[in-house]
Design a protein that fits this description.
The protein is mainly alpha-helical. It contains 14 helices and no strands.
């Protein structure tokens, strides 16, 4: 796996993260507009499902979404200019205000889709189905490969923005340990979430301590505070994700490569287009394969 990620060059990652950010942002259309849409990760399918449903838009939900997005973008600009407000938790503030507004104004009674009841408590550990390991191994291996590629892609994209290095072996070790522990609690496969990484980055996180704080906060919420979040409109969560992932769309990189390196621009566009129209997983695999082909071509025909 360490060998494979070496082919994820900067243009490949830039194209993938930009396209993935667009897809993840568009996946929130159902929450932003208050309509029912099937889950999909291909641009043409998302718009094909969305356009016929636009007439069913819930206006109060859309209003909440628009105001939330305006507030978050406005807070981002103000925080850049006013150093005293740099650490102001704008997303958390928005969530608390909208929870209060939802309670007072009865958003749920007016058709706004709310988070609703959240299961309380933590799962108990259970033994693994050792007798089925052989049957599960091929599927588990493919999930591990795809999860690692996606996780490393978003980690390196953020690392390049913040000017630090990411060790793929260390990332793989961390993901492996997380999945080993999680397997005893019937957890979903653990990986670096694209949207949550973007939200974490947007919130100003600088180290893994933010993940530790988040983990402790989630445990406390799940054990003691789940009723508090029941009246929260899903439109607010969708708005937070849209604003967070928007910072990962890198248009400047495309302009730069157009002027300096057309081959890298081609790689970026292949990664961008395949991720948008084929899928997130397929996009990064196609781009990595294309990168490998170009490296081999350069080695065989150096001039």
């Amino acid at each position: 796996l360490d060998f494979i990620v070496r082919f994820l060059s900067h243009p490949v990652l830039s194209g993938f993260t930009s396209a993935a950010a667009i897809i993840i942002g568009l996946s929130q259309l159902k929450n932003l507009f208050g309509i029912h849409l099937p889950r999909d990760k291909q641009l043409h399918n998302i718009f094909g499902s969305f356009i016929p449903e636009v007439d069913e838009t819930h206006l109060l939900t859309l209003g909440i979404s628009v105001l939330s997005i305006i507030f978050l973008f406005g807070a981002r600009k103000i925080k850049r200019k006013v150093k005293a407000l740099k650490r102001f938790p704008d997303a958390l503030f928005l969530v608390l205000v909208l929870i209060l507004a939802s309670e007072v104004l009865d958003f749920g009674d007016h058709g706004v889709d709310l988070v609703g009841k959240v299961p309380k408590g933590l799962p108990a550990p259970k033994n693994l189905p050792w007798d089925r390991m052989g049957d599960l191994a091929p599927t588990a291996a493919s999930i591990a490969l795809i999860a690692f590629l996606e996780s490393f892609a978003v980690a390196r994209a953020i690392a390049e923005k913040e000017h630090y290095e990411v060790d793929p072996r260390q990332e793989l070790l961390a993901l492996g340990l997380c999945n080993i522990v999680g397997s005893f609690f019937k957890c979903m496969p653990v990986t670096g979430s694209f949207s949550r990484s973007a939200v974490n980055f947007q919130a100003g996180a600088k180290s893994t301590i933010s993940s530790m704080v988040t983990a402790v906060a989630v445990m406390l919420v799940v054990i003691f505070l789940t009723p508090l979040f029941e009246p929260l409109p899903k439109a607010v969560l969708g708005s937070i994700i849209v604003v967070a992932v928007s910072s990962l769309v890198n248009v400047q990189e495309m302009k730069h490569l157009w002027k300096t390196d057309r081959r890298d621009l081609f790689l970026l566009l292949v990664s961008f287009g395949s991720t948008l129209f084929v899928g997130l997983v397929e996009g990064i695999l196609i781009a990595a394969a294309m990168s490998m082909v170009l490296v081999l071509q350069k080695a065989v025909i150096p001039h």
